[in-house]
Amino acid sequence: LSWTIHAAQSVTEFHEMQHRHGMTSIQWLDSIDVLDERSVIAHGIFLDHHPWLHWTSQQDLKLLSDRGVTIAHCPTVFSRRGIALNTFGAYLDSGVRMSIGTDTYPHNMLDECRTAAMVARIIGQSVTDLDCADVFNAATVAGAHALNRNDIGRIAVGCKADFSTIDLTSPCMRPVREPLRSLITVAGSRPVKDVFIHGEQVVSSGTVLNIDFELELTRLQIAQQNMLNAVPERDWNSRSAEELAPLMLKTVESI
What's one Pfam family the UniProt record gives for this protein (predicted)? Predict the structure, then answer.
């Protein structure tokens, strides 16, 4: 079985590990003999080569590669906070196995793939740091490998029938020449037509079949309001949600 742990995801963590153990998070995990091909490191951003750390050693990438560890890269949640891997392409070039995760709303794998590609090129200062095929492989076969599964992540005899169909007539997919590149860099989830999980169709022509979407959205809205109402009870200074997180734009009611 594979196992996962969050590691190397903040500057504070890096320096705390140095203070406590005199080594990086990756080096410490290796020192207790848990890094191997079954290991999945969520995030793995602040390795000792990251420029924010200004560290003297650069051993972590090679260590991850030598041990066959997979990184579960979740670019959206960190890019929202101005944090980026340095870089996706550099990890691949070092032989590190890379997969794609979500870790935050809206849990959209195509959005994550696009963000991963764009951020890698910005941080790497090169359009060649990462291509769409690398990202697609990370989101499919590499994820399956991380889970030690050979029956998912690809379409082949004996594999689970997990797949989506894409409407190539959609304007965001036209003109059709490089459909994978168009899907990741332009279209996102808009042209996704049908989705099958283990052979069962769960989305048809863009409509979700196995949940009552409107009912669940209504429940979500109610849950959010209940949470907002409870904020003063949970805040040390009894502040409201509006005080702690004011709206960016005024509503008509507040004017």
Answer: Amidohydro_1
Residues 135 and 170 in one domain: no
Whole-angstrom Cα distance, residue 70 to residue 62?
13
Q: How many domains does the chain have?
A: 3
Query: Do residues 225 and 132 share a domain?
Result: no
| Contacts of residue 73, Cβ cutoff 8 Å, sequence gap at least 6 | 43, 44, 85, 88, 98, 99, 100, 101, 116, 138
Q: Which H or E run includes 71?
A: strand 70-73
Tell me how far apart the alpha carbons of residues 223 and 15 are, in angstroms, rounded to a whole number: 38
Same structural domain for residues 59 and 121?
A: yes
Q: Which two tokens stand for residue 60?
A: 């972590």
Statement to judge: residues 74 and 19 lie in one domain:
yes
Domain span at residue 122 reads 3-158
Of the pLDDT bands very low, low, confident and very high (cuts 50, 70, 90), residue 236 is very high
pLDDT tens column, 156-193: 999 999 999 999 999 999 999 999 999 999 999 999 99
Both 100 and 171 in one domain: the answer is no
User: What are 187's two structure tokens?
Assistant: 């279209």
Which residues are paired to 40 by β-bridges? Answer: 4, 70
Beta-carbon count within 10 A of 34 CB: 14
Instruction: Report whether 150 contacts 160 (CB < 8 A).
Output: no
Residue 243's identity, in one-letter code, is E
Asked whether residue 167 falls in the same domain as residue 153, the answer is no
- Regarding whether 235 and 203 lie in a shared domain, the answer is no
Q: Same domain, yes or no, for 217 and 238? A: yes
